[in-house]
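Exercise 7. Predict the joint structure of the components listed below.
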Amino acid sequence: MTPALAIDGLSVEYDDFVALDDVSLTVAPGESFGLVGESGSGKSTLLRAVAGLAPVSSGTITVDGQKLGAKRDKAFYRKVQMVFQDPYGSLHPRQTVDRLLLEPLAIHGFTGTEGRIIRALDEVGLPASFRFRYSHQLSGGQRQRVAIARALILEPSILLLDEPTSALDASVQAEVLNLLEQLRATRNLTFVMVSHDLAVVTHMCDRLMVMQSGRTVEELASSDLAARRVTQDYTRGLLTASAGFRRDSA
Amino acid sequence: MSEATMTRREWLLTDRPQSRLQARLGRAYVAWRRFTANKLAVIGLVIILGLVFLAIFAPLLAPHSPYIGDLAKARLLAPGAGHWLGTDDQGRDILSRLIYGSRLTLQVVLLVAVIAAPIGLLVGTVAGYAGGWVDAVLMRITDIFLAFPKLVLALAFVAALGPGIGNAIIAIAITSWPPYARIARAETLTVRNSDYIQAVQLMGASPWRIVLRHIMPLCISSLIVRVTLDMAGIILTAAGLGFLGLGAQPPLPEWGAMIASGRRFILDQWWVAAAPGVAILIVSLGFNLLGDGLRDALDPRGSGQ
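Solution:
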């Protein structure tokens, strides 16, 4: 079976800084793949490189068996969409929810926009009365729902999630994660999810990759992580850190 | 509360609008309320609306002809019952000339704004969004235009194109777009790497679409404010060109040209030059007050987010 996403020997450099160094991974269709690591480990850069927002210096990215060039075409954007980390920064401040959702449809020349917008709002659990609100009239969780609706309105098969819940408070986090879970199940989506929260990743993902300073530390199944079957010291360190602060170990 | 019992104010301020139009009107209403809270800004608006009113109804409002005077009996009369603001050296009623002159002033201001603001907006946003050599080329051109003193460059253009109100407008427009390009570029740079612009890139939008539909709307409010504040300067430049005889040509009742012709009698018949001078002062003041009010009303940072 062709993998939904295959990355081979990918490197990203900003001027002289190597943000991503020779990273490879494959994600099967319908799979949920997690990327974990500390801040600056290159996990977000990996997502951005796939989306075409980061300068790739070497390596290949293959989506559904098609190798991506330096320029992405429109067909790519219908297949791959992304949800950003900060819902306060990812929605245009001068556009209503309606306009935000209409834009991707207009770019790709979809018909029946009216119905699609209403359906998209319904799918992410927002009432239709939110349709003509501006983003500043929405809460953080509602904004992230709009961002998810916007990403899904083009009916992509792969969704890139860049810490989709880290800017939200705990109860809203759970709501949004459940929403994503449910959407993945109904639409058979492939997820690539970045998070620094190991609990979120073990809950959401089948497999995951641990990264540190732009390199792969190890790749493992989330059941292994849950059972603490890890081979690398760095991963062990992450696990300890995520268990929380303990006075005796400090 | 049902739809029918809503007052118009509640309909505008509702946080769940039912249509695109209602959302837009609600937003405009909030800006309007912020604007009217500033009394000086309202005074400015009233002055400008008064100017527009004078310009539209000039033939009905002017008591005499602005062009034909009574050379035999009415030369350089002091302000009085027959001629409220007196008459000039050709026996023409100064009030009538001022009222007709409002048309020229408004024409200059509007045309300069309509020509210069879009040029500046386009150059600035394209330079800011494209970056690289496009940015370098566009901004160096802008720098060259900025380096010339405005009035001197306008003088050079008028000298090359010939005197006249149309050429004066073109000359002022050519010299006034660079600051707008600067502002638009600065605004563009602050938003070009934001997540919401990248989100649009990720939808496959073309660069032109991003610049025109997503970046420009964010630059427009600061540009409107700047243009309004510049209008006083535009009026003064036009008056300056008129004063030097390079703007409107006689017998057009352009305010700057009127001051120039009144200069010869300024000690004995002060009203000939003073009346158009006061008119320029009031209208400039009106635009400045309006601009200040718009800045407070349109500033996105203060828009209750």
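Discussion. DSSP finds nine helices and ten strands in chain A.
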